[in-house]
Amino acid sequence: MPTTPPVPSPAPRAAAGAAFAEVSASDASLRRFLHGLPGVDPVGLEARAAALGTRSVKTAAKVRAIDLAISMIDLTTLEGADTPGKVRALAAKALHPDPTDRSAPRVAAVCVYPDMVATAKETLAGSEVRIASVATAFPAGRAPLAVKLADVESALTAGADEIDMVIDRGAFLAGRYAKVYEEIVAVREAIGTRARLKVIFETGELSTYDNILRASWLGMLGGADFIKTSTGKVGVNATPANTLLMLQAVRDFRAAHGEQVGVKPAGGIRTTKDAIKFLVLVAETAGEDWLSNAWFRFGASGLLGDLLMQRQKLATGRYSGPDYVTVD
Known about the structure:
Blueprint: H1 27-35, H2 42-52, H3 59-71, E1 74-76, H4 84-95, E2 109-112, H5 117-124, E3 130-135, H6 145-158, E4 162-166, H7 169-173, H8 177-191, E5 196-200, H9 203-206, H10 209-222, E6 226-228, H11 240-257, E7 262-264, H12 272-286, H13 303-316
Parallel strand pairs: 1-2, 2-3, 3-4, 4-5, 5-6, 6-7
């Protein structure tokens, strides 16, 4: 499996309202478009994801895949008990994931609440590690739009490079697609060129693969730079099947509209074996153009420790055990 070196973050997409004015003119037009997408075959989707998960990655390719996966991680802390000290430690870990081996790649980003962005920025200043921040009333997304936009502006003013917004799942499930779309467009316009936008669907609450596909297109039509599975705060988060479906969506969107959008599975990806399965999904579904942290991320802080332990084992022949790495 090929890997790519770290690349500069692509320019954020433009607000998409005008580009898709006919589709987005009303709830009725959005419904016609979204419900006109091909229906998803759940059995076929899950079988395809399972089959790709059996692909074997041998030693040399595994070394490259581990480094690639490390470089794709958004190292995250989103807890009520977060402190400046914890965020500084996490940011330092992002810069040097393995203090005993400076050849280990840096992660893609550190993801924190808006009030912790400035703290992360102090440690990460001058590095290529991005600062991501959740916003728009994360994780529920239940707040007036003015409050959501103030949340976004707070993160941007503090220095965030990326904004991870959540959609209003209640509105989406009620069929109020225009409300969801308009909020994505409003956030996209508020961000402008200052940051890239990740749109979180909370796939575990959307219930069906058809809904996940519709949300994927709604996010891309609205101007998302990334579409993201989950907040990590519910029982069902990223799975091979829902990530495969989203990869198919970004592939088809680029084919139809010429714009590339990234994918971020988040929550529940804990082992090197899991990460490699997802990289195979990327390569076999979207293609090699998505095999960089510019277009694919893991929202899975717990994954880093296992990747580092497997990396050391491949380098030395010895397995150090769980005390080899820090626990976030």
